[in-house]
Design a protein that fits this description.
6 helices; 24% strand; ten-stranded antiparallel β-sheet; globular; alpha+beta
Length: 248
């Protein structure tokens, strides 16, 4: 496939793509220490209620809604969040339903949400020319024991470059990443639906491989057009019941 010479669509007047796509929600939660001062029996009852509400969002949904939920702990690796729910659905309104179910539980009275990101899957304009670059439209979530997440914004000068210049930089970026077979990237798009342009997440079983990948990409030309790629979250894959057990 050739370089997209009309990314703005002004020449070809391409019709909007209204295909069904996955929406992604990365919802981060922090526990109020006051919860740990409650009697143990009351804590257990409250946690069981929360666990049932979170699970019900998945089990109550018909298959065609494409509901997926993965759960991760950040305890011990980040101070401002304790756990994260990675939600996926074909309708962004499903995330409102998921949070409403949690809001009706007593545990939400002890939880805050320091971060919450919404994004959407779409085909990349850069990867189609590179064989084996991973250009699927659907996310395969939670394959690794770790998930590394960050919001991402390009500088405005990036969009002023010629299509060939951007494509060349992204080709370099993709080839530099090629040896890191143990890291699977999920790039999703937030234009118009959240503050950042992208949310990037990486599934992996080996944190050291991800660290080396990020270090290597610092030396590619495309890296100089990064405006912001923080905060960075190291998420440890765990069942929600186990996470709640570790909260208190």
């Amino acid at each position: 496939m050739m370089v997209d010479l009309d990314p703005s669509g002004q020449v070809t007047q391409r019709e909007p793509d209204r295909a069904n796509r996955q929406f992604l929600n990365y919802a981060f939660y922090k526990l109020d220490p006051a919860f740990r001062r409650l009697p143990r029996d009351e804590q257990a009852e409250i946690k069981a209620e929360f666990l049932a509400a979170a699970a019900g969002w998945v089990t109550d949904a018909p298959q065609e809604k494409g509901i997926i939920q993965r759960t991760y702990s950040l305890m011990g690796v980040r101070a401002d969040v304790d756990f994260m729910l990675w939600r996926i659905a074909f309708d962004v309104r499903e995330f409102a339903d998921a949070q409403a179910r949690l809001n009706r539980t007593r545990l939400m009275g002890y939880l805050t949400q320091p971060y919450n990101y919404v994004s959407m899957q779409k085909r990349s304009q850069y990867v189609n020319r590179v064989e084996g670059s991973g250009h699927g439209l659907e996310v395969l979530p939670g394959q690794g024991q770790f998930l590394f997440i960050y919001p991402f914004i390009k500088t405005r000068p990036w969009y002023k470059l010629t299509p060939h210049s951007r494509q060349g930089m992204m080709d370099e970026h993709i080839y530099a990443s090629a040896p890191f077979k143990g890291v699977r990237i999920n790039t999703s798009y937030s234009y118009g639906i959240d503050d950042q342009e992208f949310v990037v997440s990486f599934d992996s079983d080996t944190p050291q491989e991800f660290v080396d990948l990020v270090h290597r990409l610092r030396y590619t030309e495309a890296s100089s057009y990064t405006l912001r790629d923080v905060p960075m979250f190291t998420c440890i894959k765990k069942e929600l019941g186990e996470i709640l057990g570790e909260l208190s």
